[in-house]
Amino acid sequence: MDGGVPPFPVEERSLRVTESAAVGRRYHRLLLDAPDLSARARPGQFFHLLCRDGAGNGPYLRRPMSIWRCGPGQPLGFLLHVKGRGTTALAALRAGDALSVVGPLGHGFTLHPDWRRVLVVARGVGLATLAPLATAAAAQGIAMEAVLSARDPADLMAAEFGGGSGAAILPVFDSDGTSEVQRVELLLRARFAEARPDAVFTCGSNRLFLLLQRLAAEHGIPGQVALEQQMGCGLGMCFCCVRQVRDATGEVANLRVCAEGPVFDLQAALAW
Amino acid sequence: MVSAITPAQVDLSVRIGSLTLANPIMPASGTFGPELAQVFDLGLLGALVTKSVTPEARAGNPLPRLAETEGGVLNSIGIPGKGLDHFIATQVPDWRRFGAPVVASLSAPTVAAFADAARRLAETPGIAAIEANISCPNLEEDGRAFAMHPEPAAAATAAMRRAVGATPLWVKLSPNTGDIAAVARAVEAEGADAVVAVNTILGLAIDIETGRPKLGAGMGGFSGPAFKPIALRMVWQCAQAVRVPVIGVGGIASAADAVEFMMAGATAVQLGTASFVSPTAMPQAIGELRAWCARKGVARAAALTGAALPATRPPVAAG
Prior knowledge:
The complex is a heterodimer. Chain A is an alpha/beta fold.
């Protein structure tokens, strides 16, 4: 691998499923054999998956899925919340089945080499999007604290998030009230006071996004948010996945989550 | 007995009036963009059909803009764009770098606006043809568009014809009409160099949990494989109604689909929604068309056009 950008960086390819397993009650993980695509993929990017089960049944359009695991020598991995036709078909895949992917797509997270400490706030399956950032931060010697918000401890998936990254997990739950926005605000203010992060990241909750946007602005801390949106083509051609984002001039514009995102500046993105 | 032709020997070129295309496969407007160059060499395509440009900038329609159905998609995107000035100054030069003929799709709210914009496009270097989108169902109240009736379709075509000089003018028809052949004849009579048949058909999907349309704009244009038989029928009707070339579009996803449309009378075809599901659908279709023609002993793909029309003797060997 010379690390250069190939002439056609986005590929449509049928990959072999190497592992397919339920995670907790509502989630599912898929690992795919694609060494080169995995090595090229970056945290925060996504693939567009053709959601057909082993018998070929599934919805007509592809589904965008953020990358959960990637990197040199690593399988390409997705962690999905099984909730609709597409994710149900994906969860029905078994090791040895084929899965057609298009990607890697979109702009991922940026980690500045000068940063020493970052903090992430993730809710639900949003942690899958932020998980590869934990690995990347560890590889660059950047410490990470991760506020993970879940219904209850059984839904937390701390291991799925952190892997071997050494990220410090700060779990909050609906079941004990610790995930309420006011209490997360107190938690974040305490962390900012004790160990001010150089940057913050979030994905998965509009309310937590708004909270983090407000606190980061107050403290002058840069941040990034990964947005989700229904997509048609995944490449930027159909203009169905737009979100309101402030552009470089401060004007609010409809930007494509697939092409200009899915990762946007925390202060530029508007609530959804 | 099938004559021995190798795929490399097959001539895929087709003529649309004065314009020769290297092959009959091109994208459908609105489903295509320079972003696809991340996946394959766009210079392989017969032509590059842009998203519709409008005289003024447009923000587009409210979300959701897409609703999936069985075998297809409803869309109501609303032609977002930065307007004609930006298109000419920035996007046309960007398109020209790929090498394939650039077909500028144009939509406008009035006959005069169509003519003014068409004139400016015709004066722009590097535009091989103008495809007049007189059929987009999202523009007018209740989906009404020029292409619904012969008279307004003819008026828009006549005004553009006078404005563009020798620049090839394709007119894209709508399936949202009771008599597609009459609209095709009307635009041919006013000087269209080709008709493109057809745009999306108006449809609706409702979320029964909320009781509201799934699309933010309410109705939308339906496309995808489930629409193919209707589009094919309209190509068949147009091909028998006019002498100018018909460009087929609607649910085409493969070389087999392309051959079917050509046999129904299309000279070339456009792939649209298929590229959402398979971004390599167009280059695959080109390769498969070449292989299919070789296998069938068809030396020139252009010979397929109209093969299935009444009173046309099929040149293709059975089986």
